[in-house]
Amino acid sequence: MNESNTQINVLFLGDIVGRPGRNIVKYYLGDLVSSEKNPYDFIIANVENASHGFGLTEKNHKELSEMGINCFTSGNHIWDKKDVYSYINNSDRLIRPWNYPKGTYGVGYRIFEVKNTKMAVLNFLGRTFMNPVDSPWEIIQNEIEKIKQEAPIVIVDFHAEATAEKICFGKFCCDHKISAVLGTHTHVQTADEKIINDYTAYISDAGFCGAHNSVIGMAYESSLKRLITSIPERFDIDENPVLELNAVAMSFDAVSGQAQSIKRIQFIKNISEVNT
Questions:
Q1: Architecture per CATH, 3-273
Q2: Cβ atoms within 10 Å of 26's Cβ, excluding its own
Q3: Could you tell me which of 131, 172, 213, 272 has the fewest CB atoms within 10 Å of its CB?
Q4: What is the tens place of the pLDDT at every residue in 170-199?
Q5: What is the dihedral of CA 217, 110, 181, 20, to 10 degrees?
Q6: Is residue 142 within 8 Å of 165, Cβ to Cβ?
Q7: Which residues are catalytic?
Q8: Residue-wise pLDDT tens digits, 72-126
Q9: What are the residue ranges spanned by the domains of the chain?
């Protein structure tokens, strides 16, 4: 096999927040996914905030699928749009955190075929400062060898609040020869991308896709009022046309699953200037 066939290139998009997030992803991907010059073999995005900041509607699931995103990860907000229950079991790309109790709608991981190589994408919730869920540590301990027998490349979206928990989980997953652990949930891209022990690509948080001047995707005014008064207020999506996309680009050896590179991406664009 030549080098192009033994290397798998993956783009992971941070949490997509509302229509601004969908718009910047659509603009960034553009015709790239159908181009012969597309550098990515597989695209993953966290979509738990993609529909007005909370959850994912079936309409937006279809819209994002048509952009060329191959796999959707999620988190604790995936249940916020109630129509998710009507389609999650039939989706061929959406996964929810695996460490919800048995019997929960949907699945916690999927295995895809990419350039004649099997790739597994897993999703977990953290447990520090989060609602109670099953142990992700035990699931990795008990299930990962079975998955790796089928898929040499294993990518984990760890949707968690605490940085220390993310770092420790990344090291734990490296001990189990997992190819990548990518933090989501806080919407702030961290500057700690690395390859742990020459094997596992890692970043504490991939960031978000949404309004650049927002408060993690939400309007400043509604965020400020909620924080000053401590009274639950509805968060409004920031609709400013200056948008931001955060992501990481990675490459993996198709045979061993070992990470070869990880690079942060930050792209900012005023979409009101597009086609003007």
A1: 4-Layer Sandwich (3.60)
A2: 15
A3: 131
A4: 999 999 999 999 999 999 999 999 999 999
A5: -10
A6: no
A7: 77
A8: 999 999 999 999 999 999 999 999 999 999 999 999 999 999 999 999 999 999 9
A9: 3-273
